[in-house]
Design brief:
Blueprint: E1 2-10, E2 14-21, E3 31-34, E4 39-43, E5 68-72, H1 74-88, E6 92-96, H2 108-116, E7 121-128, H3 135-144, E8 148-151, H4 158-165, H5 172-185, E9 189-192, E10 195-196, H6 202-215, E11 227-228, H7 246-260, H8 268-271, E12 288-296, E13 303-307, E14 312-316, E15 326-333, E16 340-347
Parallel strand pairs: 2-5, 4-6, 6-7, 7-8, 8-9, 10-11, 14-16
Antiparallel strand pairs: 1-2, 3-4, 12-13, 12-15, 13-14, 15-16
């Protein structure tokens, strides 16, 4: 059974929900995502304290498209993770990445320790946009068993960083200080991943990558990569910026490596990644099932439906439905078992 409860309101009357239950591997917003490799994405929360001007998932207090936020109960996360790991039966990396900021999760240290307790977990990493603001937090992350921090900062310039992050309190100089502490004083590795916004931070990404190499990031894993600015349906669009094609992006990467002599493109093998069997998905595109609507989803116009037969959640889109009511739905998307359905008709039981 999956329960969504404890509804309170935060930023602009947005709903904050607690999620509890098994089999949390079918919703993109939270839970565990298996994309058919030895890297499992762990998503314990949707919360974020930043308002990045380029955010592809419109996270943060100033979001216009989000209707709800979610925090997952830790036992539910661990049970789902262990279920999938048992099926894969191979060494895995637990990557804590979110559609928000992973370090906002209130049980982050306990989560890392409990992930570490699984003997098949080879490494644990977390993605952050710069919420590592103190050495105390870093030491607790290290003591909990964290192996790597994937740090996404997009400039080393103090004022531009505030603009890009969308908050006046962001202190990139402090982030730089703590990142260098991570490399020099802890066993945690650092991977730096600036986002390139053409025409906005062209020179900045060069300086960020050069800084990553200079301080010794990449003790075990690659030191740096550059992310592509991608426009998504619910994401934010940077004014005056046109999204470039993937072919142009990879051309930029090739020229960057040739010009500066710094690698920023890496193979799966260099990341320690390999293909594995995916955990079986109970439904495929075209299947029909009955669900009960539990709550709104993260974004406006989406709902979370519960399938009691398979004990899973699905994302319901397409037309308005009523909370607490039952519907016949059809699966319209099943990639990586992130199930999206459309309602066919309301069912009275």
């Amino acid at each position: 059974m999956v329960k969504i409860y404890g509804k309170t309101t935060i930023w602009n009357k947005r709903l904050l929900n607690i999620v509890e239950g098994d089999n949390l591997y079918t919703y993109i917003g939270f839970g565990v995502i298996d994309r058919g490799t030895n890297v499992l994405q762990i998503r314990p929360t949707t919360m974020c304290v930043f308002n990045c001007i380029f955010c592809s998932v419109d996270a943060g207090p100033l979001s216009r498209n989000r209707f709800s936020e979610f925090i997952v109960e830790i036992d539910s996360l661990i049970n789902t993770f262990n279920l999938i790991v048992r099926f894969k039966n191979c060494s895995v990396e637990a990557l804590i990445d979110t559609i928000g900021e992973g370090l906002t999760y209130p049980h982050i240290f306990d989560l890392i320790m409990r992930l570490r307790s699984n003997p098949l977990v080879k490494s644990i990493a977390i993605e952050t946009h710069g919420l590592i603001q103190s050495k105390t937090i870093v030491k607790k992350l290290e003591e909990s068993g964290l192996d790597r921090i994937n740090l996404s900062i997009d400039t080393l310039n103090k004022e531009k960083a505030k603009y890009l992050m969308g908050v006046s309190w962001f202190n990139v100089e402090k982030v730089i200080e703590i990142a260098e502490y991570v490399v020099k004083e802890t066993n945690i590795d650092l991977h730096v991943t600036p986002l390139w916004i053409p025409g906005v931070n062209d020179e900045d990404v060069i300086k960020v990558v050069e800084w990553a190499y200079k301080i010794g990031a990449g003790k075990k894993w690659p030191p740096a990569t550059i992310q592509k600015y991608v426009v998504h349906r619910f994401g934010r669009k940077v004014p005056g910026v046109r999204e470039i094609s993937w072919s142009d992006f990879w051309k930029f990467i090739r020229i960057f490596e040739e010009k500066f002599g710094l690698r920023i493109k890496w193979s799966m093998e260099e990341w320690g990644m390999f293909r594995t069997l995916k955990y079986p998905c109970p439904y495929t595109k075209g299947d029909r099932l009955f669900v009960k609507i539990l709550s709104p989803g993260v974004f406006r116009g989406e709902y979370l439906g519960f399938d009691a037969d398979r004990n899973i959640l699905v994302t319901v889109i397409g037309r308005s439905v009523r909370i607490g009511f039952n519907y016949l739905v059809e699966v319209i998307e099943d990639k990586d078992c992130l199930l999206i359905v459309k309602p066919i008709k309301e069912i009275h039981i």
